[in-house]
Model the fold of this input.
Amino acid sequence: MKCNIEYIGKSRQGITKYYCTVHKSFAYDKFGNKLDECLCSNKEIYDNRLNIKQNEIKDVNIKYENILENVIPRIMINGKEFNGSLEYDNSLLTYKDFGGIMLAKLNNIPLEIVKCSHCGRYHSDNGRFAYTPHRTHLCLYCGHLFRAKEKDIGSELAMIYNVPEVKFEDKLLKIDNYCCVEYNMLKGTLLINNENVNRVLFKDKDINIAKFLSHILENEF
Ligand SMILES: [Zn+2]
Ligand SMILES: [Zn+2]
Ligand SMILES: [Zn+2]
Done:
């Protein structure tokens, strides 16, 4: 699908901003020039859409093969690999939203229904915004900033599914340069290198698993 790039106003520094509403990505350079194509690096996932109102989803697995090297997970839906996006009413959800809900659940964040006052679509927070409550949200559908009444965190997936808390065993696992993360969204399980642990020993530091993954995925929004 081709980009649809729109002017969305100026930054505080006076730079003109453009946004692609097809691929949920910005489309301007540091001087404020409009780009021919937006900055989304996985445009193909928007071509393959699964309507989750018509297709019942019983199982969602997100697997980061080695999260230390690659922060794009493989997604398994009902046991089959799925390289695309999920469609539900006006929501279009991708691997970034799965990462976002994983981070929110790891950090025990209450998720709210947040709506963009500009375009009226619902809002999901990913990356560092999935565990940092905030009042000014960036709508990923229209690219505009909007203000909520209070600091909160939104999730469209939590509006659609009853996503359980993640349960951990009190256990430490040493990580060197390989870290496979498997998250089952509807079961609420999370495995690190096939083990259920709440802490990792990484570069000689004992780190809580929520902190560890939050830091790695902070820029995935
Ligand atoms: Zn685009
Ligand atoms: Zn919007
Ligand atoms: Zn937000």
The chain has three helices and 16 strands. The longest helix spans residues 95-106. Residues 1-41 form one domain.
